[in-house]
């Protein structure tokens, strides 16, 4: 199923022009992002360009960058993220124009499914473009401490006899397969770049038979450590992996600021975070357009890589 949006929507009274986003646009994009308090860094924008050089877009009004959006394609699934519109240009069709360009790109790439996480303000726009809501996505921000503050009293010693170690490059095939089982799409390029860009910033756990039970990645963010993705076959593995990251981040002593993007449909992750005095607030709505993903196990998704690409 291909999407063929009406390209006349690109024309408006603001003289907006949709152009390719390039590395030289990152400083302006950071200013736009900072106005919303989001957690992305310049390194994140560079990774977006690596993943989708032809699907990264900006809206220009003269010499001024007033909107951004990125469309990533993994396994014929298009993920739209980083849709940001400058405050003075909102509710004037700019957001629609740049999202329509992303939909054009998904059609060019022969995608049968388009997925995004919409803010409260964006739900109406995406609904008018044919997206349907699937589930709520929450964000958790706070601080975890080494001396019990923000940490559960239950430790890894209460969990089954799982093995735990840092992710290595040789683990890529296994974690790609596990995530594909959870999401219904193969995202090898995304996981490859995250592991390459942040070596040692992740853990895997295995069961007593040596089979992979889950993995977690984390990376520095603009204001907090971004924790995710976290994919696991069950609550025990997810808890062990989350505890490993929190312990790693607080190992020098003191406390660490963390941020997670989590599906509200997974009660396990909400319980873990509540035990660690981190509240989860539903801020986003997962929406999709096109065919349903097949063979997805969304109960295995405990944390997303971030709100910009699921």
Molecular structure report:
This protein has two domains: 7-111, Aminopeptidase (3-Layer(aba) Sandwich); 137-303, 3-Layer(aba) Sandwich (Aminopeptidase). It has eight helices and 13 strands. It has helices at residues 26-34, 42-51, 94-108, 123-128, 172-183, 188-197, 235-249, 267-275, and strands at 16-20, 56-61, 64-74, 77-85, 113-119, 132-145, 163-166, 202-206, 212-220, 225-232, 255-263, 280-290, 301-303. Strands 1, 2, 3, 4, 5, 6, 7, 8, 9, 10, 11, 12 and 13 form a 13-stranded mixed sheet that branches. The longest helix is centred in the first third of the chain and has 15 residues, at 94-108.
Which keywords apply here?
2 domains, 310 residues, Aminopeptidase, 13-stranded mixed β-sheet, 13 strands, alpha+beta, single chain, 8 helices, globular, 28% helix
């Amino acid at each position: 199923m291909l999407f063929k949006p009406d390209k006349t929507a690109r024309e408006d009274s603001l003289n907006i022009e949709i152009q390719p986003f390039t590395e030289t646009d990152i400083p302006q994009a950071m200013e736009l992002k900072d106005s919303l308090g989001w957690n992305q860094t310049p390194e994140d924008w560079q990774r977006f360009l690596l993943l989708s050089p032809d699907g990264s877009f900006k809206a220009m009004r003269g010499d001024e960058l007033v909107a951004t959006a990125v469309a990533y394609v993994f396994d014929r699934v298009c993920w739209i993220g980083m849709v940001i519109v400058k405050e003075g240009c909102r509710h004037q069709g700019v957001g629609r124009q740049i999202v329509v360009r992303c939909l054009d790109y998904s059609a060019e790439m022969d995608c049968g499914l388009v997925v995004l996480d919409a803010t409260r303000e964006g739900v109406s726009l995406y609904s008018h473009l044919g997206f349907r809501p699937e589930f709520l996505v929450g964000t958790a921000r706070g601080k975890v401490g080494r001396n019990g503050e923000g940490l559960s009293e239950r430790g890894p010693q209460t969990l089954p006899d799982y093995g735990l170690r840092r992710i290595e490059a040789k683990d890529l095939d296994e974690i790609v397969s596990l995530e594909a089982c959870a999401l219904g799409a193969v995202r090898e390029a995304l996981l490859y770049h995250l592991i390459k860009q942040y070596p040692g910033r992740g853990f895997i756990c295995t069961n007593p038979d040596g089979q992979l039970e889950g993995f977690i990645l984390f990376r520095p963010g603009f204001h907090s450590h971004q924790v995710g993705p976290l994919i696991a076959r069950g609550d025990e593995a997810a808890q062990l992996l989350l505890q490993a990251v929190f312990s790693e981040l607080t190992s020098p002593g003191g406390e660490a600021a963390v941020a997670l993007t989590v599906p509200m449909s997974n009660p396990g992750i909400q319980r873990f975070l509540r035990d660690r005095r981190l509240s989860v607030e539903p801020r986003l709505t997962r929406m999709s357009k096109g065919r349903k993903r097949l063979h997805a196990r969304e109960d295995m998704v405990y944390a997303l890589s971030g709100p910009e690409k699921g």
